[in-house]
Amino acid sequence: MNSPSADNMIKNDRKTINAWAMYDWANSSYALVIVSAIFPVYYNTITKVNGNTKIDFFGLPIENTAAYSICLGIAFGIVALISPLLSSISDYSGNQRSFMKFFCYMGSIGCMLLFFFTDYHLVYLALFGLMLATVGYSGSIVFYNSYLPAIATEDRQDKVSARGYAFGYIGATTLLIFNLLFIMNQHALGVADDTLFPRLSFLLTGLWWMGFAQIPLRVLPKGLYAAKPKGKNIMHGYMELIKIWRTLQSYLKLRTFLFSFFFFIMGVQTVMFMATSFGNKEIHLGATQLIITVLLLEYLGIAGAFLFAWISKKTSNVTALMIAVSLWILICIGAYFIVTPMHFYIAAFFIGMVMGGIQSLARSTYAKLIPKTENNAGYFSFFDVCEKIAIMCGLIMFGYLDNHTGSMRNSIMALATWFVIGLILLFIVRRTKTTEPILTS
After folding, report:
1. Do residue 346 and residue 399 come from a single domain?
2. Is residue 438 part of a domain?
3. Are residues 141 and 19 in the same domain?
4. Is 11 buried (19+), middle (13-18) or exposed (0-12) by CB count in 10 A?
5. CA 147, CA 234: separation in Å to the nearest integer?
6. Using alpha carbons only, how large is the chain's radius of gyration in Å?
7. For position 229, what pLDDT does the model report?
8. Cβ neighbours, 10 Å, residue 331
9. Domain for residue 208, yes or no?
């Protein structure tokens, strides 16, 4: 089947839009099953031997959760480093679909490798599979997002983007519930091996991702350009980031907001990535309890996004963000004193209410602050790289403190510091009256 080129593609075509959104359906299973719900608990269980939670990490004894956090951080750092190069190469070659397929398959294979993680001695395989899946997921998203302007007119892009998120949510929760039913009924099905159904969930996630991805990979055009863009080279992505950084020197409000975003999103994403590990290791919650909690977080995240959209409408984007960041500070402080499952569920409730709202508000606030330009893509590329670097820093710092102090509670308290810095910078953003260039001599 030959897919159309971007030049002759009809925009706002329902079939094409649904096919594009199916990639969210396909890859969101990684985010929910591997990162948020099943794998963190399984990993902690397998790497805990006779009460010892330290593993051999390239010759160094390190906490299992610290190794997990650091490897995730390195994966995001790799994506932040290579994504500008990949975007430039794909633009130059006019073949975004091949790059999207490459990273899709990389991520899928990474998930499937986790099926073979059967005991403590295979921890390197597990961490390698996790990193491979994370790089594949984040790398493919770069090219997936680039198709949005090609398939929808500007006035429809918000709606089409929301459709993708909706498909992703439905697909991921469907697969997670399916896996949960098998894990909960293991003994009723006569399965004695406690590792079998969790490992099958990893294999199924990879197959789900790769299988459903065939729909967009067949329908979307090969590339976004019929010919090589003139005047571009493979270093164009990095040159564009440097150009945006220089431009920011003239926009005090926008620059201050980006610094604030860097600090508070570092805290948000680190908490979201490590919450399940925290609940399992510090509160000793089981897999079923944590999976159900993650599912509830997904629903609460939707409600929270609408709540903070309403708050921002009644006040302003920055004020709503300040409220959300303040709540995150309280969550981190409260998490230090969590000792019972009920405490964890209460914290999870508030995390769910603020996690969706703060991410959607951050992106929409940034969109309002950037100057009027024909280079919106460049500004959002800079925004995405900032986020990935922030995630890398947050996860590596979290892992270091976890290993150094022997408690994830201390890492959570350190994250509260980053939220405080983000909040202070948001105060400055609110007091800054203009986004016009600052006159310099």
Report:
1. yes
2. no
3. yes
4. middle
5. 19
6. 22
7. 52
8. 24
9. yes
Same domain membership, residue 221 and residue 201: yes
Give 57's strand partners.
60
- Rounded CA separation 138/78 (Å): 10
Task: Please tell me whether residues 175 and 260 are part of one structural domain.
Answer: no
d(CA 103, CA 227): 23
The boundaries of the domain holding residue 127 are 1-232
**pLDDT tens for each residue of 250-263:** 888 999 999 999 99
Residues 92, 233: Cα–Cα separation, whole Å: 7
CA dist 229 and 69 (Å) reads 39
Cα separation, 328 vs 316, in Å, equals 19
Residues 6+ apart with CB under 8 A from 62: 54, 55, 403
Is the Cα torsion angle 400, 401, 407, 411 positive or negative in sign? negative
Structure tokens, 416: 């509260």
pLDDT at residue 39 is higher than 60: yes
* The pair of three-digit structure tokens given for residue 439, joined into one six-digit string: 């006159």
Do residues 206 and 297 both lie within one domain?
Answer: no
For the beta carbon of residue 101, count every other beta carbon within 10 angstroms.
18
Last residue of a domain, one of 183, 205, 232: 232
C-alpha closest to that of 140 among 93, 212, 86, 91: 86
pLDDT value at position 397? Answer: 94
**Residue 168's CATH number:** 1.20.1250.20
| Exposed / middle / buried, residue 358 (Cβ in 10 Å: 0-12, 13-18, 19+) | buried
Report the number of distinct structural domains present in the chain.
Answer: 2
Last residue within a domain, chosen from 213, 232, 251: 232
Question: For residue 313, with 0-12 CB atoms within 10 Å meaning exposed, 13-18 middle and 19 or more buried, which class applies?
Answer: exposed
Contact 198, 117 (CB under 8 A): no
CA–CA separation, 394 and 412 (whole Å):
10
Same domain, 19 and 75: yes
pLDDT value, residue 373? 66
Do 79 and 156 belong together in one domain? yes
Entry pTM? 0.85
Q: Pull the structure tokens for residue 121.
A: 């001695």
Q: Which residue has the tokens 């409260």?
A: 334
